[in-house]
Amino acid sequence: MEKNHSYTTEEVANILKVSKLTVYDLVKKGLLPAYRVGRQMRIDPSDLEEYIKRSKGELQPSSSQSLSKETTSGAQGYSQVRQLIISGQDISLDILANYLEKSSKRFRPLRSYVGSLESLISMYQGYSDIVSTHLIEGISGEYNVPYISKILVNFQYIVIHLLTRKAGFYVKKGNPLNIKHWEDLRRKDIKIVNREKGSGARVLLDESLRKYRIPISEINGYNNEVTNHVSVASAVAKGDADVGVGIEKAADLVKDVDFIPLVNERYDLVILKNDENRELISQVLQILRSDNFKNDLKALGGYDLSQTGQVVYEN
Segment Disordered: which positions (predicted)? Predict the structure, then answer.
């Protein structure tokens, strides 16, 4: 291992042949020391090497094993500072992480940039503390709760509305192929770029195809996958595809792309209801309902915040 730089979570995941969520879990449990640069977590090669040797039984756990560099440098024990994993891809979650860190010395948020279904599964497995989801049930048009209730079986949880945003098609500037509706994706002259399985955009596409009884075998480019909204918009701008599904905000970041709105999607947060999370839920509700937080999101544009902070569902 190289000694002259620190590793990102993605690099550590590749070295250990595990998911990034597993790396976050090792850090949360104090098994792998880490520190943060901005919102990004970094791990020193020496600490990773020590963890690997401990896993092989070559080293006994050190007395500092349960402390991250961040908590040690602050002279606070690991038990006093809780590392939080906030999972999802919208920039609003980065802002929420900043507010959480400022609001309480007890929380140290870390960000995991994965899709809605994977986020919910990570919560079921105990890897994530706050997850975001924008999953539509195509026939009913209901967002999120149908999926959450199926995945978080036998858990108690609260669903809090974060924001509403527009989702639809990215098309080439001027929309030369006149793409306006899901039915247009059947056309042989249209090639799509798709999102990865488990993302909200992928679920939106699949549920819309199901609703309009369009077989995926008729969709040119269905298996061409990228992993975020900007990559979808960029593929359309470069001419690698004619259309892709995503949110309006990403279209503002990419030149030579127009956005065709199709749905107003609900973007909600999920937190498990237990004794450990009682303070966390209270802090999140207080932040979401504050004028300062809402004003920061308003400054970004493109969000409907009229229901931000409302409890959608709890059990």
Answer: 55-74
